[in-house]
Write a structure and sequence with these properties.
Shape: elongated
Order of helices and strands: HHHHHHHHHHHH
CATH superfamily of the largest domain: RNA polymerase sigma factor, region 2, helix turn helix motif
Largest sheet: none
CATH topology of the largest domain: Rna Polymerase Sigma Factor, Chain: A
CATH class of the largest domain: Mainly Alpha
Strand content: under 5%
Structural class: mainly alpha
Number of helices: 12
Number of domains: 2
CATH architecture of the largest domain: Orthogonal Bundle
Length: about 220
């Protein structure tokens, strides 16, 4: 794809966005434009519409990725890739829908690709855990206008009991099988499976709390 003309066109539009915002505060001028109008303008080839999409959503998309990645540089690179993929796939977008959920879907797919591609498992253990928890959280509980619930995850993990925390660590960071975790914790494979299930559910419940002050549950 790096050699394709549309890809370079999207990169040029992304650079144009940064120039307009940095020099003129351009994005704020058209802040009243609806997502539906932006999509229509994009399909007519309006690069300024793409710039506004980035202006409105870049901070949220970067925050979503940064909360799930160990390295800030990875979040920077993936944020730009999200908007490039958005630009290239805009023709398939439902113009009656909102743009941000689509962008978050692209970001989630990039995270899954990252987990598959990185061989050093310790670097993606956190990302894998975040994606697994996202899969059991209700879609409307994952993201609000002001916060990403995954930011609460470190505190929720602290609230797990020692066995549950160790099981999570062995499974995601060390990529240990259930039977191996069982030997480590002196439990049967079935007991470890139940422990992991309860740990994920406890984390899910903790993440859904308005504030994360208490313990998500001991194990």
């Amino acid at each position: 794809m790096p050699g394709s003309a549309p890809y370079h066109h999207a990169e040029a539009s992304y650079d144009r966005y940064r120039f307009l915002v940095a020099n003129f505060g351009w994005g704020r001028i058209l802040s009243h434009v609806s997502d539906q109008s932006l999509i229509e303008q994009l399909r007519r080839g309006d690069r300024n519409a793409f710039a506004l999409v980035v202006e409105r959503n870049q901070r949220s998309i970067y925050g979503y990725l940064r909360a799930r990645l160990q390295q800030a540089s990875d979040a920077d690179d993936m944020t730009q890739e999200v908007f490039l993929r958005f630009y290239l796939t805009q023709a398939r977008f439902d113009s009656t829908a909102l743009i941000r959920p689509w962008l978050l879907g692209i970001a989630r797919n990039l995270l899954r690709e990252h987990v598959r591609d990185v061989k050093r498992r310790k670097e993606v253990a956190w990302t894998e855990l975040c994606l697994d928890l996202e899969s059991i959280l209700p879609p409307d509980a994952l993201w609000t206008d002001t916060d990403d619930v995954i930011r609460k995850l470190p505190l929720c993990l602290e609230g797990l009991g020692p066995s549950a925390r160790q099981a999570i660590e062995l499974h995601y960071r060390s990529q240990r099988k259930l039977v191996e975790i069982g030997r480590e914790l002196h439990r049967s494979e079935g007991a470890v499976k139940l422990l992991m299930h309860r740990a994920r559910q406890a984390l899910k419940n903790c993440l859904q709390l308005p504030t994360t002050r208490g313990s998500p549950g001991k194990g």
